[in-house]
Structure formats: C-alpha cells, structure tokens
Amino acid sequence: MAESRMSYTDEHLLTSEINLTNCDREPIHIPGSVQPYGFLLCLHEQTLRIVQASENTLALLGIAAPDLLGAGLEQLLSADQVEAIAHLYPTLGVTPKLLGVRLDKVAGQPFFKIILHRHDQLLWAEFEPVTDATTNALDLGQLNEALGQMLSATRVLEFCQYTVEQVRRITGFDRVAIYRFAGDESGEIIAEAKHEDLEPWLGLHYPATDIPQQARAMYLKNWLRFIPNASYVPARLVPANNPATNRPPDMTYAVLRSVSPIHLQYLHNMGSAATMTISLIREGKLWGMVTCHHRTPRLVGYELRDLCQFLGKTFSALIKTKEQYDEQEYQLRIRETQVHLLEHVSSSINFVDGLYRQRPTVQDVFDCGGAAVCFDGEVILLGNTPSQEQVQELLAWLQEHAPQEVFHTDSYVQHNPAGLALRPTASGILAVSLADAPGNYLLWFRPEVVQTVTWAGQNTKAEVLADGQVFLSPRQSFEAWKQLVESTSAPWKPMEIEAAKEIRLHISDVRLKVFNELQARASRLSQLNIELERSNDELDSFAYVASHDLKEPLRGIHNYSLFLLEDYADQLDAEGVSKLQTLVRLSQRMESLIESLLQLSRVGRQELVVDVIDMNELLIEVVDLLAPRFEQTNTTVNVAHPLPIIRGDQVRLREVFSNLLTNAMRYSDRPDKVVEVGAVSTEEAGQKEFVNLDDFHVFYVRDNGIGIDPKHHSSIFKLFKRLHAQDKYGGGTGAGLAIVKKMVEKHGGALWVESIKGEGATFYFSLSKHL
Ligand code: BLA
C-alpha cells in the first residue's frame, strides 16, 4: 500500500505515520486499492481502454489484472452489454448507474452488478459479484411499510427509532443505530435496533476524532459507505497510478474504495466484521449517520443498499421538520411553565415566593441541573447547585463582570478561573438580573457534560501496538475528548435565552405593577389622610357648631318661637311679635347654615364627573344665570375671552364661578361695580409667582369692591368665617368660599386671594391639567 503512494509522501501521510493526532490528514480518497469482494476497472475517458485494474481480477475472473490493461470492455462483456454501457455513457457523472450483467465470456462467478460512474478523467466500472450470500431481496411492499412508519413519526427520537427498526428489518444487520453529531462533532447513539444478544450502545458518546474531517467530507458526497468484510486483504490497483495523470486516481465515488487500516482496526475493536453507514444530511451538513454492524461478514446487494440510501435521503429531507417539532414542543413546554411560574409570581404577596415555593419553580422552566433565586441578599437554591457561598461569589462576579441584563455561558471557567470549583454543577450558567439593586438575580445551572455522558468504552484500557504506538482506543478517545469539553455544559439554546429575557421582563413588569399599585395605594392613602384631616377639621367645626351653637338653640328657638307666635301672639305687643318673628327667621337661617354644611360635606365625599369643558361657554351660562342680580346691583361683568378648554366637573365649576361672582358683586359699596373674569396668561404668570402653568389652568375673578385686609387672607376660606355683620353684604352663611375651596381642591388645585383693603380683590384658583 505504501508503494502505491510513493509519489505522494510529500503531500500525504503514509499509513504507518497515521496516529491519533493526525488522522484528519490520512488521504483516504486515494488508497490505491479496493475491498476485494468486487473488482475495479478504470477506463480512459476518451478511448475507453482499461488503464488500471484491481489485482483481484485474477481471483474473481481468472484473468490477471495486467492482462486486462489496454483492452476494452468487450473483452468481458457481450456486444449488447457494451452497447448498453455506450448508451449510458453520455449521461454518466459521479452519480453511479447500475447495470446487471452475466459474464458469459469468463469462467468463475458468472453474475455481476456493474456500478458505473465518471470521475477524475476515468470511467469507473466496479464489478460486484451476486452470489447466494448476497442479501438482495428488494421488496416494494417492505419499502412502503418502512416509509409509512417513518412518516408517522412526529418527534426526532421517534423518527430515528422507526428508521433504525426499518433499516434493520430490510437489511438484517445485527445492529442498526443512529449516531447524531453534536456541535463539537462528537456524537451520541440516539436510537438503536439490535440483536438481543448484543450489548446496547444507546446513549453512548464517541469523540469527533472517530470520524475524521476528510471522511465526513466524503460522506457528504457519497451517501453510503459499505464494508462487507472488515478483515479483508486490500486488492491493489495495477498499475498504482493512472498513466495519464501519473498519480493514484481519486476514489471518492468508488464503492469498492479500500478502507483506512486504522478504521478497520477500530471496527475490529468494536467487534464488527461488516458495516454499512448511511449519511444523514440536514441542510448540507452531516447531521448524523445510520451505522449498521454485523458480527460476521455481510454482503448486502447494491439495490438493497440503494434502497437504504433512499431511506437515508428521505430521513434527511424530513429531519428538519421533526427537529422543528421538538423545538416547538420544548418551546411550548418552556412557555407553559413560564406562564404558570409567572402566575405564581403575580399572585404571591411577595413575588420571590412565587419563584420557588410551588411547582413549577424557576428550575422547571429549562432543562437544567439546578437554579437559584437571589433577592435582597437571600439566596434560595433549587436542585443541583453550587454551595451558598459559591453562589454568593458568583453573584459578586456577575455584578462586576457581567453587568448586562442576561448573561449566559456554557463554560464559566473560561470567564473566571475560580469557576473550576463550580464545574460539576455549574459549568453552564444562565443569569438574568432582576432589578437595579445589585445582587438580585435568577440563575440556572447546567452541569459539566463530562459528568452526564456515558463514554463508549470508558473503562477499557489503552492498547499498545507492536511498534510501540499507543493505539487509539475508546478510553484514549475519551481522554482526548474530555480535555476538549472539560468544564463545558450543554449549550443554552437561543430560545432559552429569549425565554429567560422574557421571564426577567415579566418579573420586572409584575414588580412594577406591584410597585405602582403600592404607590397608588400609598398616594390614595395619603390623599385619604389629607381628606380625612380636612373633613375631620370640618367635622370638628360642624360638630361643635351643630351641637352647641346651632342644633340645641335651633330646636329650642324654633319650637318656642312658633309656639309663642301661635298661642300667645294676641297677648304680645308688636315688639314682642317682631322678636318672635326674628327668632323664627334665625332658626330658618340656622337651617340654611346646616344646608351649607351638608353641601360642603357632599363636595368632599362625591367624586368629580370629569368632562371636557369649554370655559367660554360655561362662563356665558353662569353670567346669564346671574344676570338679573347683576342688573339689580348695577354690576358689570367682563369675561376676558378666549378662555381655555379644560377637563373638569361642569356642575362644580359652575358653582365655583357663581360663588366667586356673587361674592364679587356683594362685597362692594361702589355704585359702578365691575367684575372681571379670565384665565391667567403665561405673561402674567411670569411676572408673579404663580403655579406652574404647564400643569395647571389658573382663573381669576377680580372685583373693585371693598377688598380684604391681608391679615384675613387665609381665614376667609374657613367654614362660616365672616368678616362682617351677618346682614351686611347680602348675608351669606359664610360657607361659600369653603365650598369653593373644596371644589377647587377636588380638581387638584388651590384657591387663594390677592387683595388690599379698599382696593378690590382678585380670587385665583387653579385646576389640574391632568384630570
Ligand atoms: C470512518 N468512523 C468511520 C465511520 C464511522 C466511524 C461510522 C464510517 C465508516 C463506516 O461505515 O464504518 C465511527 N462507527 C463510528 C462510531 C460508531 C460507529 C463512532 O458505529 C459508534 C457506534 N477513527 C478513529 C480515529 C481515527 C479514525 C482516532 O477512531 C483516526 C486516527 C479514522 N474513521 C477513521 C477513518 C474513517 C473512519 C479514516 C474513514 C473510513 C473510510 O471510509 O475509509
């Protein structure tokens, strides 16, 4: 074999030089020999003369290879058969075409299948004998059944299981398995159908090196690799080089291509005498392989292999949808758990409780070993996790080095050497920060893959070959792989990271809601408190006034005066009657005082009915309503239109204006009373210290009346506060301004006065713009 590669030693390695570290460089596409269960003829592409033949033609045909060189196919085939090949020839490429032939011209085994393809300037004719030993039954019914079952699967594992069962049923191999590659190209047996005597391989992992790169590349081009007898003696090509190119021909597409000796040794170690491997390809990448093994040599006919290849291609076309189904299912599971979890979070008084006190907990959301809820200095551990102390250290590290909202790694030790101690439980970490407050995190942990993987042949000893080289054994492979994946967990899927982000958002939403609610409650409470205080004040005054000053005398005065007027009027003089009448009037006045009180308490209790109000219209209405009294008192009312359109309670604001206007009209001695109404402009506001006009509308009612001494400016808004004799200036109850004040306050505003005694007064009130 070495001889056949003489001219290639510069570029390629010799078989004797191949070891564990350099298998990727073994030139397996140019082995210069074939597996001897068939023979190979390489014909010159143009002349169609045989330029190379495998040396086993002698064994299979009784003709020595050198004797075939220079001849055409007519040496072996009938004219019809040659004609048939000539017919196929123009359509030939790397995809093989099959021709069944009976070699009448030669002695020995008469039935052959010729597998034809064109590649590397040669026409390749590979002859496979069809013997009694060939498993060749091609049954369309079987195919139908196989496909039917495969198509009925929805999930990846189910699909794989059906596939291995069907391939085993069709081919009769002792063991049929599906070997799926991981991101690092190591692999795992995820489905298996086997003879009951065999040890199961299901779940075993093998390193990437077990199928070197160049072999993988070849299995992408060539969907089926068949080794019917792993203890064969290779049959060399004669001559070794293609005379036209002076190098060994590229056997990538040759089914008889001889196998790497190192792989044959591997098969031997596995106890396998025959294998057939079907590529499973997803979107141009080798997704996995169906590997078939037999304990004894096993010849599977070309058509049956073709059928298996067909199943492989069908599998390849469908695997994406099955994976998508699994992904969606996992996503759905995540979603469902997420929803339940968040329900707990929302319904718990303390949201942290919702994260771990009942199932599903945070840990249940993802496939992970454990989780931790870290909040306000407390760390709650769930499942398999690092210790409290270690998690605290991790939190400190996260705060310093991973300030982003979501941090994930499948190898924490690569970020922080101290992570080495955490690797059994937390090689992989997914962390979401919960709040601005430092140290608040949700953490998910994934263990080191090495801890979870069953390694093929983990316990077998390394073999030392005769030449002293340590032969790769599964044990060696494990060590090599272990170094590669040490401290690494299964990766976090993008959908998991997304879900973690969502959980984070939901939680902060919930917390925000709770916070807002608390705030709203707090402000409602403080509002209530203020109102309570106010109404307490008023209630106090009311209780006092009502019980001592009003209620008792009212009852007595009213009853007695009525009684006297009715029964003793004729016994009294005019003055007496008048006094009694005054008493009755007084009691009536008391009644109106009580009425005002009630009105005030109503204003305090009732909610505003907020509407959009055009203040221009509202004032026109108010002024219209009061017009007769204005006329009587010779009062001119000027409204400085335009007034703004605002939000507020129509009825209340009408009362506000009506009250203020009535006051303005009343408290004046002037014959020409003028009242001005308007809204404070930005300009005016700028000149004085006004409330912020961005948040408030400010209105004023200005009169040219008697004015108010500044010392009374705050007391005039108190209940029943009168500055003047009761019957002076129209004799109100003294509740008006208190009621106005209350209404304005209900609108989120304030009422105040600016005035100098004798020079008129301006009442201002503000109304919130955010009602
Ligand atoms: C090829 N290695 C292969 C193939 C498989 C495996 C399936 C395809 C050829 C075939 O059908 O046998 C590996 N087979 C497995 C694994 C399982 C299995 C993992 O059934 C699991 C149950 N192999 C090594 C190392 C080297 C190596 C260290 O373990 C290199 C030094 C080489 N493997 C190697 C080579 C081939 C190969 C060169 C290509 C064989 C060929 O097609 O010529």
Your description of this structure?
The protein has 5 domains: 3-27 and 138-233 and 255-325, Beta-Lactamase (2-Layer Sandwich); 33-134, 2-Layer Sandwich (Beta-Lactamase), CATH 3.30.450.20; 348-448, PHY domain (Beta-Lactamase), CATH 3.30.450.270; 514-605; 610-768, Histidine kinase-like ATPase, C-terminal domain (Heat Shock Protein 90). Helix content is 41%, strand content 20%. The protein contains 20 helices and 28 strands. It has a 7-stranded antiparallel beta sheet with strand order 1-11-3-2-6-5-4. β7 and β8 (187-194) form a beta hairpin. α4 packs parallel to α8 (302-347), α8 runs parallel beside α15 (494-568) and α15 (494-568) packs antiparallel against α16. The longest helix is centred in the last third of the chain and has 75 residues, at 494-568. The radius of gyration is 50 Å and the shape is rod-shaped. It binds biliverdine IX alpha. Biliverdine IX alpha (BLA) binds next to β7, β10, α7, β12 and β13. GO terms for molecular function: ATP binding. InterPro entries: BphY/WalK/GraS-like, GAF, GAF-like_dom_sf, HATPase_C_sf, HATPase_dom, His_kinase_dom, HisK_dim/P_dom, HisK_dim/P_sf.
